[in-house]
Each structure stands twice: as C-alpha cells, then as structure tokens.
Predict the 3D structure of the following.
Amino acid sequence: MNHTILETQTLTKTFRSQEAVKNISLCVPENCVYGLLGPNGAGKSTLLKMITGILRPTSGQIRFQGHPWSRRDLAEIGALIETPPVYENLTAWENLKVRAIILGVPDERIEEVLDQVDLKDTGKKKAGEFSLGMKQRLGIAIALLNRPKLLVLDEPVNGLDPIGIQDLRQMIRRFPEQGITVIVSSHILSEIEQTADYIGIIAGGTLGYQGGMPKKNHLEELFMKIAMEQAGRERHA
C-alpha cells in the first residue's frame, strides 16, 4: 500500500465573503497520478495555489510527507500553475539555466530535464518560436529542476492539439516510475480517465468524491451527479 505524500485537512480559502474552497480534505498517495477534476470555477486552481504556497489558506492544514507543510517544503514541490514561466527570447537551455542559477543546480541537471521532457534537440530555437505544447513541456522542465517529490500541474493540456495532449499524457504517466507524485487538474473527464490512478472531484469549492478511478464509462455519471448536487445546494442556499 502506498504511503501518503500530501494531505489537506478541512482546507478553506475565503476571498472577502466568498468561500472559494470549503473544508477540503485531500489524501494523495505517494508515486501516483492524482487527478483533480472539476468544472471551470470549481476551486481547483485555488486549492493548488495553497498547496504550492502561492495563496495562504484561510483555515485548515496541509501536511506534506507526514509533517505540517512549511515553505521549506517547496524545495521538494514543483509546479506549473497557469502560464509557463518562460522567457520567449531565450532557448530552452537558457531558460533552464536562469532557474538553475537561482536553485544552485549544475548544468548536468539541465540536460537531464531537457531529456525528460523531450526538448533536448531544440538547440538555438527561441522559446517564443515553440508550439504551445513545447512551452508546456518547458514549464514542466523548469518545475522538475529541483528534483521534486511532488509535481503540481494545473490544467496542463488546455489549448494543446491532440498530438501535444498525447505527448503530455505519456510524460505524466512516466513520472511515478521516477519517484515523482503528480497532482494534475482538469475539467476534461476523458483526460483524467486516461491519466490518473486516483481522483478527487470538486464542485462549488467542495470535494464531492475522492478515491480510485470508477469503472470504465462511469466517471461521467459520477461527475455529473456531484456537479448537479452542488448546483442544487447553491440554489437553495
């Protein structure tokens, strides 16, 4: 049985009077792909921003590798939230070098992550000339530089063409074999169904389901049930 790498306990985030995330208790097993599913505006990004230290929780607790989360844990967490942090006038290698200097990482590690994300042969091509899929992979490479135990990817397939989606899916599936746990969010059911080992379904800032992947073709039924129940609660609130 896998150990747990990340837990959130009744995690809540309030913006003024609006609760974006409400008492969410996640449990993410080590060395798996955990799919965080939810409609747009469900609270997925807000939850991931708290896990990666971008936002401070209003209440609740995050535990990482068995202890209360602190900013020191960011040394073992990589993240790609929203737009890849890419300098478009630099090559892939140069983009990674900028980050490597900050982290104190040797050039050998740059070569390793370029190989991991299949960008080793881009040479002198500037990142501004990359396809969206290549930029996403470069963003993931930057997140991998510090050899994270946990990799957080927020809607990574948005805007990608079918080939880009397939490449990214295959890459994500390889990470647990390399000792990297992945949390990947999406509103695309088929993508999570093909990528994740475990799932959490969020609607209206509330976690409606958490556990193993339902039987084939049952995910949509479960997702719609949770989304409709939450919509009903909001109408009667």
